[in-house]
TrEMBL record:
One Pfam family it belongs to: OMPdecase
Organism (species): Salinimicrobium oceani
Domain Orotidine 5'-phosphate decarboxylase positions: 16-254
Catalytic activity: orotidine 5'-phosphate + H(+) = UMP + CO2
The protein, known as: Orotidine-5'-phosphate decarboxylase
E.C. number: 4.1.1.23
Keywords of the record: Decarboxylase, Lyase, Pyrimidine biosynthesis
Molecular function GO labels: orotidine-5'-phosphate decarboxylase activity
């Protein structure tokens, strides 16, 4: 999917909501545990109930890898279900990968060719040759961790390196890499005070902004300081949406939470 197709969807749905599919078997309604594939059954119900309110879904790989082969099968079924039934929806593999070039090439092949995700999150720490294999894919997007939502972001990302914060160096350096137009950046919703500075460096790039809901990030401030002329934002909420209810009404409750976020987003468009 191209970024202009993504912006088109955002304008159509009046939403830049990304729903995180972080499935925890201890939190899903207990009746689903009787299903042959409880993770996929949960995801399918959440997707069907919320697809008109969201433009993206983001399964975090940890929640699937934790279940070995069964988890990986559930992930495969989830991405196939999205691609077959809702091809207009942008998909993000939140995998935070990155390794020496030939290994990154295999990660890129796995997420873009085999699983057919539109994008994957990648850590910048190993530098240019670890990221370029992802960037080589046309109309696929590499979402680089820049300034993350967690408290540990201050341990390294905001530290000064040669006169500027490390996260700024990551953004400035990476945008010059070959196929840098395929980059998006992760900026935590808990770090809105940095957004104006970030927009000066990358006015046009899409930002994936996790941290709204359970982590207390501020949606209004993200919109005020992070939005650009093409919207340029995907705001993620995982637990706040998918675990709105632990009962039989879980999908309906998720849709209600998603609608609240969508309505707030619509007010900024
Ligand atoms: O900086 C980051 C990068 C990734 N995440 C991931 O996003 C979701 C957030 O889940 P919530 O339940 O909405 O808090 C989760 O998959 C994280 O691993 C992040 O939170 N911050």
């Amino acid at each position: 999917m191209t970024t202009s197709q993504l912006t088109e969807q955002i304008r159509l749905k009046k939403s830049f909501l990304c729903i995180g599919l972080d499935v925890d078997l201890t939190k899903i309604p207990q009746h689903l545990l009787k299903e042959e594939d409880p993770i996929f059954a949960f995801n399918k119900a959440i997707i069907d109930a919320t697809q008109h309110l969201a433009v993206a879904y983001k399964p975090n790989l940890a929640f699937y890898e934790a279940h070995g082969i069964k988890g990986f099968q559930a992930l495969g079924k989830t991405i196939d279900y999205l691609n077959e039934n809702y091809p207009e929806i942008f998909t993000i593999a939140d995998a935070k990968r990155g390794d020496i070039g030939n290994t990154s090439g295999m990660y890129a092949k796995a997420f873009f060719e085999d699983l057919k995700f539109d994008s994957v999150t990648v850590a910048p720490y190993m530098g240019k040759d670890s990221v370029e294999p992802f960037l080589a894919y046309e109309n696929k997007h590499t979402i680089l961790l820049a300034l993350t939502s967690n408290a540990g972001a201050y341990d390294f990302q905001t530290q000064q390196v040669e006169g500027e914060e490390l996260y700024k160096k990551v953004i400035k350096t990476s945008k010059e890499w070959k196929n840098g137009q395929n980059l998006m950046y992760v900026i935590g919703a808990t770090k809105t005070e940095f957004l104006q500075e970030i927009r000066k460096i990358i006015p046009e790039s899409f930002l994936l902004v996790p941290g709204v809901g359970a982590q207390g990030g501020n949606l209004k401030e993200v919109c005020e300081f992070g939005m650009n002329r093409n919207i340029g934002l995907l705001i993620n909420a995982s637990r706040a949406v998918i675990y709105a209810s632990h009962g039989a009404d879980f999908a309906e409750a998720a849709a209600n939470e998603a609608e609240k976020l969508q309505q707030e987003m619509a007010s900024f468009l």
